[in-house]
Amino acid sequence: MTRNVPLTNYEFTMDEPVKDTVIRDAKSIYKKILYVCFHQYDDENTIKKWDLWGSFIVYITLSICIFLDNEIVDKKNTFGYFFVFFFIGHILVSLNLSLLHINIPFFQSLCIISYSLFPLILSSFLNLFISTHVLRLLFCLLSIVWSSYTRFIKICLPIF
């Protein structure tokens, strides 16, 4: 005989309302961005729970920001090239990590790499409103340095 007990903490997420799922995932993405880019939430279990929604949102947002840039002539191909080259680059980084015998799952490394691209999203969004090439270059360089300084190195290579 089984009893129907109402689930209040949604142990099985199939019974969870869509609104609660979206809010939970948005909070998770927010925590991971803070953890990877801003070195907050020092709970290492945060990043071990990889997700593909955050990676998808980061890649699509960055692709859209690049697509909306007025200086790009061939917008459709640039959007596709960007999306494909970043994914191929991620595969190569994951292959390099496995050749170095660093045990990190493929999708977890995809999650970490995509969250470390968040400074590039900020830079590309700011560059939509800036017409001075020197300032655009400065923002791009700062975002590349910031992206390189994220927690990805500390997570994958604990010797640093």
From TrEMBL:
The record, for InterPro entries, names: Yip1/4-like, Yip1_dom
Keyword set, alphabetical order: Membrane, Transmembrane, Transmembrane helix
Q: Where in the cell is it found?
A: Golgi apparatus membrane; Membrane
Please, one GO biological process term? endoplasmic reticulum to Golgi vesicle-mediated transport
- Where does it sit, as one GO cellular component term? trans-Golgi network
TM ranges are 50-68, 80-100, 106-126
Q: How does it sit in the membrane?
A: Multi-pass membrane protein
Domain Yip1: from-to ranges: 48-149
Q: Which Pfam families match?
A: Yip1
Q: Which family does it belong to?
A: Belongs to the YIP1 family.
Descriptive protein name: Protein YIPF
Organism from which the protein derives: Plasmodium falciparum NF135/5.C10
Q: What is the lineage of its organism?
A: Eukaryota, Sar, Alveolata, Apicomplexa, Aconoidasida
